[in-house]
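A common beginner's mistake is to predict each chain separately and then try to dock the pieces by hand. The better habit, illustrated here, is to supply every component at once so that their relative placement is modeled jointly.
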Amino acid sequence: MLDGLAHLLFPAVCILCRKPLDKGEEHICAGCFDEFNPFPGAIAGGVMLQSTVRGHFDEQAVPSAAWSLYPYQSSGSLHEAMHSMKYGGLFPLGELFGKRLGELVRQNGDHATFDAIVPVPLHRLKRIERSYNQSEAIASGMAGVLRLPVATECLERCLYTGTQTGLGMEARRENMAGAFRPGRKRSPARVLLVDDVLTTGATMVAAAKALKTAGAVEVAFATIAVTEKEG
Ligand SMILES: [Zn+2]
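With all components supplied together, the output reads:
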């Protein structure tokens, strides 16, 4: 009742096109979501993610299973939404994308084999700087859909790495190697590792390696987007 009144007085608008949101829509309208141009079907994004990792790393670094929602470009409405999520303090957007990513994983039907979701951690100083970790928000949205716990204490980011944007592959790999270490707790055996965007895979490959040192047997990757051109 009160919610309905508030909606009438202050209609919520889409953060991208500024049109009033319909009932059931949150932050981004259905029309704008369509414009993000999702990968066709449940497996296309994962295949793209795996082939991106394969293009930069040894076969053993390629995740056994992978999911991704959108091809990522460095401009356009998806870029704008991801930027709001990461830097604009639009925390609920991460959850919203996470729910969609969770649905995608669920379509494959093998999510029940995972023990936990692990968000790629930020260094604690960067976490303070940004006030939240977008990967944790994504993981939390996924956790609700997949009914899996989120494990944050089995993986730590020990290096404060600057932005990866604009770095070539060699620099990224060097930047990320040794950026993660096992956390205070042992890793669950079968883990779904989550991040916002995969560009070359350097971050997730390094994180997965630390998780395996922490006790993980299998690490699958899930991201909102995979960058289309090589970074
Ligand atoms: Zn819109």
